[in-house]
Design a protein that fits this description.
By secondary structure, the chain is α/β, with parallel strands linked by helices. The chain has 2 domains: 243 residues, TIM Barrel (Alpha-Beta Barrel); 34 residues, no CATH class. Helices cover 49% and strands 12% of the residues. An 8-stranded parallel barrel has the order 1-2-3-4-5-6-7-8, surrounded by 9 helices. The longest helix is centred in the last third of the chain and has 20 residues.
Length: 300
């Protein structure tokens, strides 16, 4: 299985030390299409958003590999040239399941995934009282991912994430990341960074390995702009709640207006055609015409 152009592109971006890769969080085809239209270098598929949109449940380890992989495959396929970084939670089980997860993500066209050191009954990284697996077990998880990549014949960027900071402290968390890097992880992800000083320290200590910042407004980490994150030394920044939060607020307000007034908000210049154009309406029409179809020859 040849390495995809998306993985190659992501590795090229990571090799440019003057650049920070900005990844808006998306969770379905619609939000991914909107982000793609804005021209970002990469996308991030949030596990919390995937769980919310597909299951209507909180991020508490209830989603399965097949549900996550299927969602990632659909998003990655919308524009295979744009790298998709996808949450892979804990790998969904022991070493054999981690092996399967990495292999499935590679086959799905995912450019990068991150694996964490919580047990399979995990929870969102910005909730409290997270449990952790022992460091040796976590490194076995990373080793299984490295082995799966090697055996696949393909490629994927492996991001080692640790949630150990809050309960075990900085030194223990960084020890886990250094162990994962020594095994072959490409990127480090210290979840729940609590200050700018700590952020700068971890980026400096793990050089030359790129470090990822998880931007969660209202979470446990400082709210950093892209420029601030780059100045601290981060090489990637993900916004997992970007679409989820915006959709929650907009739909809630629209639902409240409908309930209270019996009407829905009308936005000037907005039509079903505009929405469908974001989703690829014109490209679909062109594909049909190119194949000799006549269903849309008079327009839509």
């Amino acid at each position: 299985m040849a390495a995809s152009s998306a993985v190659t592109r992501l590795r090229q971006l990571l090799a440019d030390e003057s650049k920070i890769i900005v990844c808006p969080g998306v969770y379905d085809g619609f939000t991914a299409r909107i982000a793609l239209r804005e021209g970002f270098d990469a996308l991030y598929m949030t596990g919390a958003g995937t769980t919310a949109s597909r299951l209507g449940q909180p991020d508490l380890g209830v989603i399965t590999l097949n549900e996550m992989r299927g969602n990632a495959e659909m998003i990655a396929g919308l524009d295979p040239a744009v790298p998709l970084i996808a949450d892979a939670d804990t790998g969904f089980g022991g070493s054999l399941m981690v092996h399967r997860t990495v292999t499935e993500y590679i086959r799905a066209g995912v450019a990068a995934l991150h694996l964490e050191d919580q047990p399979t009954s995990k929870r969102c990284g910005h909730l409290s009282n997270k449990q952790l697996i022992p460091e040796a077990e976590y490194l076995d998880r990373i080793r299984a991912a490295i082995n799966a990549r090697a055996r696949s014949g393909g490629d994927i960027v492996l991001i080692a994430r640790t949630d150990a900071l809050q309960s075990l402290g900085y030194e223990a968390a960084v020890s886990r990341l250094k162990g994962a890097i020594a095994l072959g992880a490409d990127v480090a992800f210290l979840e729940g960074v609590s200050s700018t000083e700590q952020a700068r320290q971890v980026c400096e200590e793990l050089k030359p390995t790129p470090v990822l910042f998880n931007a969660v407004p209202g979470g446990v980490s400082p709210d950093l702009s892209v420029q601030e994150a780059q100045e601290l030394g981060f090489r990637l920044i993900i916004y997992p709640g970007l679409a989820l939060s915006a959709v929650y607020q907009a739909v809630r307000e629209a639902a409240q207006k409908l309930k209270a007034t019996g009407t829905q908000a009308v936005r000037t210049g907005e039509s079903p055609r505009d929405l469908f154009n974001v989703l690829g309406l014109q490209e679909a029409v062109a594909l049909d015409l190119a194949a000799g179809g006549r269903l849309y020859d008079k327009g839509v």
